[in-house]
Known about the structure:
- By secondary structure, the protein is an alpha/beta fold.
- The chain has one domain: 5'-nuclease (Rossmann fold, 3-Layer(aba) Sandwich).
- It has helices spanning 8-15, 22-33, 43-54, 59-72, 80-87, 94-106, 130-139, and strands at 2-6, 37-42, 73-76, 111-113, 126-128.
- Strands 3-2-1-4-5 form a 5-stranded parallel β-sheet.
- The longest helix is centred in the middle third of the chain and has 14 residues, at 59-72.
- The protein is globular, with a radius of gyration of 14 Å.
- The two termini are 13 Å apart.
Amino acid sequence: MKRVLIDTDVILDFFFDREPFSNDAAKILSLCESREIKGFITSVIISNVYYLLRQSSTHEKVVEKLTQLITITEVLITDKAAILKALNSNFRDFEDALQNYSAELDGQIDIIITRNIKDFKNSSLGIMTPGNYLKTTIASH
Length: 141
């Protein structure tokens, strides 16, 4: 089973129904829910998504949505080693660096699924957009 880190932008595409990206995001999360892939997020993703959803919704509704998300995904550890690697990396975006090194140090993540491929050019992991990932997943079935 593929183990993938789902980046913040994909989660936000789903929750905010951002066209034309929300359909692919929903399909990725559906693959997690059906256990066809093992989806991972980080606590940083949860924190950022909470903050952004809270701008337009109640605490209770946001908690409900995030609880649903973590029932179909696993949460990677972002520890001191990941933070130090992120701080000393060539990533332009610190949040992306945290996601990347949390995934790299886990040692079992196959791919990071993100719409911001260029932000992960310094990653040693495979990086794919949701659309490209879905095309390769469908092609392999």
